[in-house]
Write a structure and sequence with these properties.
The complex is a heterodimer of chains A (about 110) and B (about 170). Chain A has helices at about 1-10, 15-35, 55-85, 90-110. Chain A is mainly alpha-helical. Chain A has one domain (about 1-110): Orthogonal Bundle (Helix Hairpins). Chain B is mainly alpha-helical and about 170 residues long. Chain B has a domain at about 1-70. Chain B contains 7 helices and no strands. In chain B, helix 6 (about 125-135) crosses helix 7. The longest helix of chain B has about 35 residues, at about 135-170. Chain B is extended.
């Protein structure tokens, strides 16, 4: 989990950051599912001969969370594409360098 | 999974990074099956490993294939990450043991769903009945989120493509 967090803060490439965010997310999902597990239980589907079921509630929550996670990462990827169109790069520090260059040019342009 | 995550951190070929993230999702799906969450495993394998890999490959096609290589670990992020990780581990210390049927999470609505959803809703799969019936509004919210995200993606990408076409014609 912390590996994903580290990728998010330390990497400069935007796509790699998004992948890191996914890794981070999955670890939270695993945490929730592990809370719902009951020892000796089975998947929460009614079948003859099974009495103990794992808790279905975390499963439902995580189902929703996975789909929402994909929606957000799709939006993030779309933003990445736009950034590439505008700046010509998807490396964070290069974008910052371009920004400061622009600002300096503006300052020089003003009297 | 830790090995895959480490490889993700170290690799610079973005195509390989995306493939590794797909493998990571599949491993997560296996983990869900072990912990009895078959529905979640299906979704993770289909959506996490399938759709998001396709989306990322599409982005790679529109942007660049390689990461700029940099060497050396950065001390400040490592410090922050270690502290946060230790705090989180400290937070899990007083959790009930894994698989304990008397844990507080199993005493509220979870029990009720298992006992009653068969009669009240019908489908043998409890997760389905909770998702579609008891927590139907959650699912409605989820659909709203997806819809908003789709509109956002279209607004971001669709416009830029049109503008490029205009520039070319001009």
């Amino acid at each position: 989990m912390m590996m994903g967090f580290y990728i998010v803060i330390s990497q400069h490439n935007l796509i790699k950051k998004i992948v890191g965010l996914n890794v981070f997310q999955v670890s939270v999902f695993v945490f929730y599912i592990s809370m719902g597990k009951v020892k000796g239980g089975t998947a929460p589907v009614f079948l003859d001969g099974f009495e103990i079921y794992s808790n279905p509630l975390p499963h439902v929550l995580i189902l929703t969370a996975i789909v929402v996670g994909v929606a957000t990462s799709a939006l993030a990827l779309a933003l990445t594409v736009r950034i590439k169109d505008t700046y010509g790069t998807i490396e964070e520090d290069e974008i910052e360098a371009l920004e400061t260059e622009d600002q300096e040019k503006e300052k020089e342009g003003l009297p | 999974m830790v090995v895959i995550a480490y490889l993700l951190l170290r690799m610079h070929n973005l195509f390989a990074v995306v493939m590794m993230s797909g493998i990571y999702s599949l491993l997560a799906a296996v983990l869900y099956v072990i912990m009895d969450a078959v529905d979640v495993a299906f979704t993770e394998a289909a959506v996490g490993a399938g759709i998001s890999t396709v989306l990322m490959l599409g982005t790679l096609a529109l942007t660049s294939r390689r990461d700029k290589e940099r060497t050396g670990n950065k001390p400040i992020p490592i410090l922050i990450v270690t502290i946060t990780g230790l705090l989180l581990i400290y937070g899990t210390l007083d959790m009930p043991p894994y698989g304990d049927p008397t844990a507080p999470i199993h005493h509220h609505v979870g029990r009720y769903y298992i006992d009653n959803s068969g009669e009240q809703v019908g489908p043998p799969n409890i997760v389905t009945s909770v998702l579609a019936s008891y927590r139907g509004y959650d699912t409605l919210g989820e659909v709203t989120v997806i819809f908003t995200a789709a509109i956002g993606v279209m607004a971001l990408i669709g416009r830029s493509r049109k503008r490029k076409k205009k520039l070319k014609t001009n």
